[in-house]
Amino acid sequence: MSATLARPATAPNSASVLMMLLHLRTFIALFAVIIFFSFAAPNFLSTANLVIMSKHVALNAFLAIGMTFVIITGGIDLSVGSIVGLSGMVAGGLILNGLDLGIGYTVYFNVIEIIAITLLLGVAIGAINGLLITRLNVAPFIATLGVLYVARGLALLSSGGRTFPNLVGNPELGTTGFPILGSGTLLGMPISIWLLIVVGFCAAYLAQRTPLGRQIYAVGGNERAAALSGVRVNRVKMFVYMFSGFCAAIVGLIISSELVAAHPATGETFELNAIAAAVLGGTSMSGGRGRIGGTIVGAFVIGILSDGLVMMGVSSFWQIVIKGLVIIAAVVVDQFQRRMQQRIALQQQAAMGG
Question: Which residues cross the membrane (predicted)?
Fold first, then answer.
């Protein structure tokens, strides 16, 4: 009798330990890549390299935060990389050439106005994604894939495929100061990191502390039940795609500012990094589950992995392969975690029934 009672006591313990490891998998992965590259890559932990890595992580994190909200609702946004490229080109074009009104007048905006216009462009493209999905019932994958091509094509058309160079601006036109966004520092820390802290904090607060955040999770958990309970599903979806476009526009501005140049191909395959960071951070591709904090840690893993592979001299082609494998592994682990949770819930129900 005592042997029979001992078995159920051990099973929950082992299951709970396994669940704890699954919940901590992002931190375990982060610790593992830091330890590995500390030995495998020379000067990996040098101050200069840490600063560069922090900037790269910020770019991944911005996109991944927006992607997290989209995936929580059960969607996907493949257009973020193209929005990055188009945003940089729009900002570069406004700095160099201004806005030609077509009646013999050209309007030049100051840097604050250019940043605002570019951010509004990202929001507008996100709204187009949202309208295609909510009003025309186009599948998120197809809608955002189409917008990916349109945005990339517009970026190429804006300059004929050429780069907008030397975006330092003209003092006489009031267009100077743009490079500060990407290369400036505040209290010894890059401005892009400060921006990430602000956006990350606001996103986490929205997700955990506001009615809109609860509605986002409700839509991803069970869209029909959310609609029946009074949630305006279409408005929630519109918001997440607009926010994702906003985050992508921030990245486009930071990259073009840091390089002091804008190229239409900027942002290619960035959507892979965003999806990988979100999924690695615990966001479920099935929707309904995910945390901004986990996503930011996932962005650290992807950023450190990318930079570490570059420092080791690994081919960029192999880097793409490795990122794809990371996405697959993260989804497999996520599905395993869901099955474990369901199994534990069923065992608890059976124990209570018994």
Answer: 20-45, 57-87, 107-131, 138-158, 178-207, 238-255, 316-333
Question: Which residues, including other chains, have CB under 8 Å from residue 57's CB and lie 6 or more apart?
Answer: 299, 300, 303, 304
Mean pLDDT, each 10-residue run in order, the chain (354 residues) = 46 66 78 86 82 88 96 95 96 90 84 95 97 95 96 93 89 87 86 93 95 94 92 95 97 94 91 89 86 91 86 83 81 78 74 67
The dihedrals phi and psi of 289, each to the nearest 5 degrees, come to -145, 135
- Residues 6 or more apart whose CB falls under 8 angstroms from that of 145 comprise 78, 79
Q: Phi, psi (5° rounding) for residue 43?
A: 60, 25
Beta-strand ranges (E) seen in the chain are 99-100, 106-107, 185-186, 189-190
Task: Enter the pTM of the model.
Answer: 0.88
Q: How far apart are CA 80 and CA 319, in angstroms?
A: 20
Q: What is the DSSP letter of 106?
A: E
